[in-house]
């Protein structure tokens, strides 16, 4: 705001109708050409809370923090009851299903290996898991249900697939520690 | 002061009315719950969000807000979005491993049936 030669205010200062200072904490992350980005974060978290959060972070981490706040705010607006937690619950279920399928497949490999180690046994002793046994183990779940994870995140959030007995953040954080190389993928923001 | 004020009204140092929007979900015996949510979202925003929801969904909404707020406090940069990223990575890795294992099964089955066929010959 101001005279000729001055840059336009950032999206936050525009929305808050105030002068955009040179050291405005929001300006690097909320450009004026994307007013929706700040609007949604302000709606869910409030400008002063966002400002406090950013001030407590080193500068090089603020862009990621803003992006994650925007993601959470969008999730909360899309699903006012469960927000991001609906997506977490959905993904945890997928992980469980896939791990079960993997266990079944690995058991089948073991069976086949055992067959190879005992070649003189009767050929009628087939140790492979038949369809009924597989279905029993998998409860009719199939890998086809696990495709298109990202598209289904939106569905999960709006349909409220949520197990209210979810683990505490600390125990889920422990799960993170057990995962290989926690990766903050840039693709998450696309 | 009314000892039966909910945790929110205690925290905000105000009277707790009979129709307080917070009181069913922030009992006085758990002050940290409200403190955590207030720190991230602010009491005003939480109140607005709850008022816009049907009563039967508010308990779940509060629990999810608490969860996300706790995640954000523990990880101020990524919050619960970091968890989503990790889960997506784990899903992809497990899918890859499953595909590899299923391919091994197919190869092993083919070899096995070829061996059986050659034994019959």
Helix and strand layout, with pairings?
The complex is a heterodimer of chains A (190) and B (121).
Chain A: H1 11-16, H2 35-44, H3 47-55, H4 59-78, H5 83-117, H6 131-138, H7 149-159, H8 169-178
Helix pairs in contact in A: 2-4, 5-7
Chain B: H1 7-12, H2 31-40, H3 43-51, H4 55-74, H5 79-120
Helix pairs in contact in B: 2-4
The main β sheet of chain A shows up as: none
Computed over alpha carbons, the radius of gyration of chain A is 25 Å
- How many strands of chain A? 0
Helix content of chain B: over 70%
**Distance between the amino and carboxyl termini of chain B:** 94 Å
Q: Please count the helical segments of chain A.
A: 8
Helix and strand sequence of chain A: HHHHHHHH
Number of domains of chain B: 2
**Would you identify the regions of chain A where 5 or more consecutive residues have pLDDT less than 50?**
1-5, 120-127, 140-167, 176-190
Helical residues, percent of chain A:
55-70%
Instruction: Tell me the strand percentage band of chain B.
Output: under 5%
The low-confidence parts of chain B are none
Oligomeric state of shown chains: heterodimer
Biggest interface and residues each:
A-B, 68 and 53 residues
Tally of contiguous helical segments of chain B: 5
- Termini Cα gap of chain A: 31 Å
Secondary-structure content class of chain B: mainly alpha
Find the count of extended strands of chain B (DSSP E, 2+ residues): 0
InterPro entries (chain B): LOB
Protein name (chain B): LOB domain-containing protein 24-like
Family (chain B): Belongs to the LOB domain-containing protein family.
Family (chain A): Belongs to the LOB domain-containing protein family.
């Amino acid at each position: 705001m101001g005279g000729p030669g001055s840059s336009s205010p950032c999206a936050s200062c525009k929305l808050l109708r105030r002068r955009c200072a040179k050291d405005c904490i929001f300006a690097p992350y909320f450009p004026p050409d994307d007013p929706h980005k700040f609007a949604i974060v302000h709606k869910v978290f409030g400008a002063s809370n966002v400002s406090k959060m950013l001030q407590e972070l080193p500068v090089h981490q603020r862009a990621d923090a803003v992006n994650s706040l925007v993601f959470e705010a969008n999730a909360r607006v899309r699903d006012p009851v469960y927000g991001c937690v609906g997506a977490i619950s959905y993904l945890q279920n997928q992980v469980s299903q896939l791990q079960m399928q993997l266990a079944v497949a690995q058991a089948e490999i073991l069976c086949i290996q055992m067959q190879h180690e005992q070649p003189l046994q009767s050929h009628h002793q087939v140790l492979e898991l038949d369809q009924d046994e597989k279905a029993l183990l998998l409860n009719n779940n199939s890998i086809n249900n696990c495709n298109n994870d990202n598209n289904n995140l939106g569905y999960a959030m709006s349909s409220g697939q949520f197990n209210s007995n979810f683990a505490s953040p600390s125990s889920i954080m422990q799960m993170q520690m057990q995962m290989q190389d926690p990766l903050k993928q840039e693709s998450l923001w696309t | 002061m009314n000892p039966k004020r909910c945790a929110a009204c205690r925290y905000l140092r105000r009277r707790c009315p009979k129709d307080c929007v917070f009181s069913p979900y922030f009992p006085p015996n758990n002050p940290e719950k409200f403190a955590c949510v207030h720190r991230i979202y602010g009491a005003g925003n939480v109140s607005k969000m709850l008022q816009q929801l049907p009563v039967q969904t508010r308990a779940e909404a509060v629990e999810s807000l608490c969860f996300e707020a706790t995640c954000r406090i523990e990880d101020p940069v990524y919050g619960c979005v970091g968890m989503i990223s990790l889960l997506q990575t784990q899903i992809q890795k497990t899918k890859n491993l499953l595909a590899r294992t299923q391919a091994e099964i197919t190869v092993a089955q083919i070899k096995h049936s070829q061996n059986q066929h050659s034994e019959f010959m």
